[in-house]
């Protein structure tokens, strides 16, 4: 029996698995995920932080999904490396899994640039997964101030969620406004005002140059020289595709995985989808996609079908991935909007949303 291995169990990985199963009931599917949880709506993790939701409420599928779909799901297992010449992946626990086709859907992570002194301290966290939310929740009782570095969707959602915890929240952004590239200036202003009403301070055109603390983060220093005490530093910076396990292999990465129109990498039986794809310095022959849940879902399903067609020797029937797909829905605070909404639509949504109406 042919075997397709999927690294990642989120928007792209889950959609790949579903597309494979719809088209083939027999092929063996193994999904490896570093996270302990079944697939969930990542864009709603702020809801857990606000105590509104139990993590289970975010799960995408019924509990028995992996069993009924005959998917060998390996949660809490991290891929250490891929050996394309042997068609094998090696997990950190030394398990070797051999595949006929591999789909990489490992997403991306926020990082502190190496130029920032003192990175790697306890309390410097991403806001990407349920584990991050649990770590933040543990630190909240001993933190008076929380800094959020970066004003993208994850950073803004984290700041808003924590503004409900009686903490001082400061967003540090190197840009002149929040959600640059996602909202226009007027919409960004409306959202900034709402956050200010929630006592979230936004420091624009600033960067962090040093993180202080003896093991645990205690303070940060801005490029202006100002020092801010904080017990948690949330990162929404330098989103980098998770490709470490592909370093020094025949798979072309720069730093995301480079794919052709069929989402196939430079190795013929390795496909990729979602945030792990190349996002920087795209050359003409490669695609450059924004990070988006809906795009990842769409790509996952194309990568799944194409991996299957590859195994069925139907390469000439592989599906092309469109390069002009709209970025998908925007979920900011408790709003859900079509991408690039009109200003009046945005303001109406903001004014009638729970976040505007609730008491401070
Ligand atoms: C707070 C927040 C809000 C967001 N809001 C929006 C929004 O409003 N609209 C929108 O379109 N998008 C939004 N996004 C972005 C969206 O969630 C991502 O674009 C989407 O999740 C990408 O899906 P993916 O499957 O490519 O990767 P991911 O969802 O990142 O999943 C990758 C999975 O692979 C696993 N993995 C990584 N490395 C390994 C390894 N070595 N071994 C095993 N497993 C590994 C990871 O642990 C993870 O589970 C938001 C994201 C966040 C964090």
List keywords for this structure.
20 strands, FAD/NAD(P)-binding domain, about 350 residues, alpha/beta, 2 domains, 5-stranded parallel beta sheet, about 25% helix, binds flavin-adenine dinucleotide
How would you describe this protein?
There is one protein chain. This protein is α/β, with parallel strands linked by helices and 360 residues long. The chain has two domains: 3-109 and 240-317, FAD/NAD(P)-binding domain (3-Layer(bba) Sandwich); 124-238 and 344-357, FAD/NAD(P)-binding domain. The protein has nine helices and 20 strands. The chain has helices at residues 11-23, 45-49, 65-68, 130-139, 153-162, 185-197, 293-311, 343-352, 354-357, and strands at residues 3-7, 28-32, 71-74, 79-83, 88-91, 96-98, 101-104, 108-109, 124-126, 145-149, 168-172, 200-203, 208-212, 219-222, 227-229, 232-235, 240-241, 270-272, 330-332, 335-337. The strands form six sheets. A five-stranded parallel β-sheet has the order 3-2-1-7-18. A five-stranded parallel β-sheet has the order 9-16-10-11-12. Strand 19 (330-332) and strand 20 (335-337) form a beta hairpin. Helix 1 (11-23) runs parallel beside helix 7 and helix 6 packs parallel to helix 8. The model has no long low-confidence stretch (mean pLDDT 90).
